[in-house]
Amino acid sequence: MNLKRLFGTILTILGIVGLIYAAIGFVNGSSAAKPLIVYGILGVIFFFTGIGLVRSTQDVAKA
Prior knowledge:
mainly alpha, 2 helices, rod-shaped, membrane, transmembrane, transmembrane helix
């Protein structure tokens, strides 16, 4: 597995975790809105960066 693809997968998973954490905080009505917004924005950035890395990395067969 390519290192860029692995890093993209890790970023995607971190983004999903950040988005889920922010969503749970918003649904539960947490009084601290500022950290939840930061987690949500970082989650979106990590998610789309990871997806971009996974999509742009080509699988090259080495013989």
